[in-house]
User: Fold this.
Amino acid sequence: MNATAITVPQADPGAGYRAQKAEIDAAVARALASGWYILGKEGEAFEKEYAAWQGAGRAAGAREIRAIGCANGTDALTLAMRGLGIGPGATVVTVSHTAVATVAAIEMVGATPLLLDIDPDTYTMDPDELAAVLDDPPPGLPPIRAVIPVHIYGQACDLAPILAACAKHGVAVIEDCSQAHGATIGGAKVGNLGRVACYSLYPTKNLGALGDGGILATPDPELAGRIAAIRQYGWKRRYISDLQGVNSRLDEVQAAILRVKLQHLDRQNDRRRQIAAAYDKALSGSRSLTAPVRRAHAHHVFHLYVLRHPRRDEFMMSLKAHGIGTGIHYPMPVHTQPAYEGRVALGPANCAETGRAAQEVFSLPMYPELSDEAVARVCDALATL
Ligand SMILES: *Cc1c(COP(=O)(O)O)cnc(C)c1O
Assistant:
């Protein structure tokens, strides 16, 4: 065995804890000492602070955003669909190039997923294919009731045509913002454009708990009230279920930690962009590597810095020999994974670009605590390979 030690990992959630250790330890101690561990003051304060962050910068008079914490990002998506009354007898459209959670959530509520292809430059939902399936739905599927665009790797989808096509057909837009906390498009923050936004707060996400967490945001007070009830047994009053509910709560310790981390999010997103700019520069002379494309009039928050290489696996091994960790997001399109293969419906493009991307993409080290020295080492390795 002569395995090279990885000295620059692809992600390092522990570094996020160490960077704010004193503040986080104090927040955890406060939550523990309170004697109240589920849906209390910390959770309420985090929801208010998150809603204020989500709604910041919107036009005066815009409807107030309400945020609802829950157990994880997968549940945020299921709560959004349950809140909208989407379940058996509905088709929900999303992409195959996503965390499997997006598709799993659709099946968790009993709806039927229909998976579309991506634009190969930005890896996000192809709006033309969406317009085509809404105008002319594939036969044999229940009616399309919702679309879940996924803002992947930190970059917003091409939302304007997606929103227009959905509005034309009266279909709800549920934004999966799990990889894009703080990304913007056309001056608007993602999560402010659809009916409801869903966020994972998994430890490696741009805003990450030190455990599981999720949150939803919506300007629709009635929908917010339904979702808040459904996440706790359908209770509007204690012990009385007015709706069919589930249990998906964010605990007080995680909420206290997330309140600390939220204060650092915008600055950390700037640091991610700075690291991305350094990688871009190092790649500018490369003929075989394709750097991430930035959508115009948008703000990319680099949850991941994803490259393409025609011989990706070899290239990753070479980086590993330099002690540099990489990842693949994602190695297998959802529709080709054993649990889904031959069983989920695809759009007319047959996910051809999704299949190509899965063979060529890989992710460089990306987290806000990455030092300038570590970034320089990655850049040097990219320049020599
Ligand atoms: C992480 C992620 C999820 C799932 O979140 P969990 O908190 O792990 O349940 C859903 N969608 C996308 C795009 C994600 O990246």
About this structure: The two ends are 24 Å apart (CA to CA). The first strand starts at residue 66 and ends at 70. The mean pLDDT is 96. The pocket of pyridoxal-5'-phosphate is lined by residues 72-74, 98-99, 101-102, 150, 176, 178-179, 200, 202, 214 (CB under 6 Å).
